[in-house]
Amino acid sequence: MTTHFPAAVLFDMDGTLVDTEPYWMKAETELVADFGGVWTAEDGLTLVGSGLGNAAAILQSRGVTLPIGEIIDRLTARVLAQTLVDVPWRPGALELVHTLRDAGIPTALVTMSMRPLAEHVANATGRRMFDVLVTGADVAKPKPHPEPYERAAALLEVDIAECVAIEDSIPGLASASASGAAVVGVPAHVALPESESWVLWPTLAGRTVDDLRALRDSRVGVASGSAVQAGGAEDGEALP
């Protein structure tokens, strides 16, 4: 295990690395409309940070008469089609990833989206951005359970307590903080509460490795008495 800080930086994808939440909301709206229902922007905001299985179950309750897996596949295909036209990087996110890569600090993408979408985003610049991808299909328990972040640290062979996780949603912050990582919240479409378990930055623009190293002094995000316990998981995938 490594002892320097941060041993790795673990990025959420939708809303943190890329502003794809509007793509998801559009896909949800269209799918519900296909079955004669109505899905509003406010409805979409309630799913920010949720696992796709949970989102699909809610869409079923709104009249989408398809199996969970097919709903996930259809949503993913629609969002992927939009990202093929444009990958909407969030301010400072791409620059911070490149800075970390140049500094030799391992990085992981930890998302509850499916692998085809995660791989497209991870490869969008033509430069290797992440050492590891953990997706919704790779874990038994999605965010807000800590398993996704624990899985990423295990694949990187680093101590999760020496990692920084960056998130934009309440379920994501809960997952990351329960894992024991130091946690940064960067709000996008949903306001994030103040907490002793994470620090809030308005944006990643201008942020440096030194900003991440400074988190060690406060150890923001160390899990303490969390009610969620880790469960079993399927393996994620380290990138070649």
From TrEMBL:
<comment type="similarity">
    <text>Belongs to the HAD-like hydrolase superfamily. CbbY/CbbZ/Gph/YieH family.</text>
</comment>
<keyword id="KW-0119">Carbohydrate metabolism</keyword>
<dbReference type="GO" id="GO:0046872">
    <property type="term" value="F:metal ion binding"/>
</dbReference>
<dbReference type="InterPro" id="IPR006439">
    <property type="entry name" value="HAD-SF_hydro_IA"/>
</dbReference>
<keyword id="KW-0479">Metal-binding</keyword>
<keyword id="KW-0460">Magnesium</keyword>
<dbReference type="InterPro" id="IPR051600">
    <property type="entry name" value="Beta-PGM-like"/>
</dbReference>
<dbReference type="InterPro" id="IPR036412">
    <property type="entry name" value="HAD-like_sf"/>
</dbReference>
<dbReference type="InterPro" id="IPR023214">
    <property type="entry name" value="HAD_sf"/>
</dbReference>
<dbReference type="GO" id="GO:0003824">
    <property type="term" value="F:catalytic activity"/>
</dbReference>
<dbReference type="Pfam" id="PF00702">
    <property type="entry name" value="Hydrolase"/>
</dbReference>
<protein>
    <submittedName>
        <fullName>HAD family phosphatase</fullName>
    </submittedName>
</protein>
<dbReference type="InterPro" id="IPR023198">
    <property type="entry name" value="PGP-like_dom2"/>
</dbReference>
